[in-house]
């Protein structure tokens, strides 16, 4: 249950972050906002590590598979695309599309077991849930 509460909090923070990033993008530009967000996040991460809050070891970075570092590239793309989407579509519409994209992709990652995650079978109920979610997104996005 704690994991689901943390995930829900993450969703709340993502909606707030997207709104803040979009406002920053209007002030300084899309790519500029993306850069600023990444720099602030990196500095924050560094401060937390220097404060001793890390639980691992940066010295083990060579042990991670090469493709795990693509997350940094994806992070830049995500921030840029969220800033652009919210500026054009609004927070609720953009967030709805983001969540639907996340769920569909997550179901694929689970099913195929990509990136070393345990494979999770796809079921009719999961498919129906995605279809219902897409229908709900369509209702939210229709004007």
Report on this model:
With 143 residues, the chain is an all-alpha fold. The protein folds into 2 domains: 62 residues, no CATH class; 53 residues. The protein has 5 helices and no strands.
Beta percentage is under 5%
Q: What's the shape?
A: globular
Low-confidence stretches: none
The helix/strand order is HHHHH
Q: How many distinct domains? A: 2
State the major sheet.
Answer: none
Portion of residues in helices? over 70%
Rg over CA atoms, rounded to whole Å, is 18 Å
Mean pLDDT: 93
Number of strands: 0
Structural features:
mainly alpha, 143 residues, 5 helices
Summary, kept brief:
It contains 5 helices and no strands. It has 143 residues and is mainly alpha-helical.
Secondary structure layout plus pairing:
Elements: H1 2-28, H2 30-50, H3 70-89, H4 91-112, H5 124-141
Helix pairs in contact: 1-2, 1-3, 2-3, 3-4, 4-5
